[in-house]
Amino acid sequence: MTNSPKSCLITGCSEGGAGAALAEAFAKKEYHVFATARSPSKVPRSLHEASNVTVLALDVASSESIANAAEEVREKAAGKLHVLINNAGMGLSAPGLDTPMSDARKLFDINFFGVLEMIQVFGPLLVEAKGFIVNNSSVGGHLPLPFLSVYQATKAAIIQASEVWRLELEPLGVRVLTLLTGGIATHFVDNQPVPALPPNSYYLGVKDVIDAKPDNIRFAVSPEAFANDVLRHVEKGTTGKLWIGGGAGLLRPLLWFSPQSLIDYLARGMKPFAEKLAAAHEKSA
Predict the structure, then answer these.
(1) Who has the most CB within 10 Å: 84, 195, 207, 243?
(2) CA dist 11 → 77, 118, 169, 270, 281 (Å)
(3) What is the DSSP letter of 218?
């Protein structure tokens, strides 16, 4: 009798993203991969055609969708899930004063509450397998970049909660790895929504800065390199916080050992708006 392959479910596997690269990497290691996306048609054809990959529809903001996916995994993976990678997420760029509350709540539903519900629903399968959870957060959870307050709040929440879940799940035999991810060469930033500023916004004079995409491509790693690194750490059994991806290794000591004034200076430099905003506000006063 041959042993059944290990199973791995990954959220957010649309083509060109980190999730699809993770699915490819785990499939090559002969896991039975459940590659999920809100729209399965966006999952790469190579994953649809792989014999050890099952493509599923999964919207992490929908309790019904999560429950349906869990039932299918339970049936096809003999009641066990060895690896859960919570990768799905979205961004949002807007000043805190102008962020629509509906957008802020939606972002928390996807980036935080979706992860919590995934862990709750798939928890019994993970406990049965003595499995492994990977939560993909961001270095942004520790870096105060202007106009990303809500997005970075969701990532800070995941970092803290994931570390607590690690302690809670360890006695049940489930390990938890928290990724503090830096730059990856995907279209994530290009696809993030930028809400229109209201006509009375204080920030109309710096709209070009808000809309500008960060110039961090020179630090970014390929999705494939990122995925292979994650796979290596899962296979090795790494738990706790892992700084990974482009620029993460540089940011870690910087954020730990630098005074807040230096961190603020660097953050403002990534979104240089302060002088322009002050001038515009003074002119209108």
Answers:
(1) 84
(2) 17, 10, 20, 30, 43
(3) G
Cα dihedral sign, 212-217-219-220: positive
pLDDT in tens, 51-109: 999 999 999 999 999 999 999 999 999 999 999 999 999 999 999 999 999 999 999 99
Which residue ranges form the domains of the chain, and what is each CATH number?
7-284 (3.40.50.720)
Nearest to 247 by CA among 266, 271, 272, 274: 266
The strand pairing partners of 132, in sequence order, are 83, 175
Question: Which residues lie across from 53 on neighbouring strands?
Answer: 33
Q: Of the candidates 176, 46, 148, 23, which has an alpha carbon nearest to the alpha carbon of residue 91?
A: 148
Q: Are the C-beta atoms of residues 154 and 168 closer than 8 Å to each other?
A: no
- Give CA angle at 155 (151, 159), nearest 5°: 170
Predicted confidence (pLDDT) at residue 262 exceeds the cutoff of 90: no
- Write out pLDDT tens, residues 193-211: 778 899 999 999 888 888 8
d(CA 116, CA 138): 17
Closest CA to 25 of 245, 227, 192, 221: 227
Q: Is 93 helix (H, G, I), strand (E, B) or coil?
A: coil
CB 122 within 8 A of CB 8: no
Q: Does pTM surpass 0.70?
A: yes
| Relative orientation angle of helices 63-76 and 114-129, to the nearest 10 degrees | 20
CA geometry: angle 187, 111, 169, nearest 5 deg: 125
Residues 241 and 181 sit within 8 Å (Cβ to Cβ): no
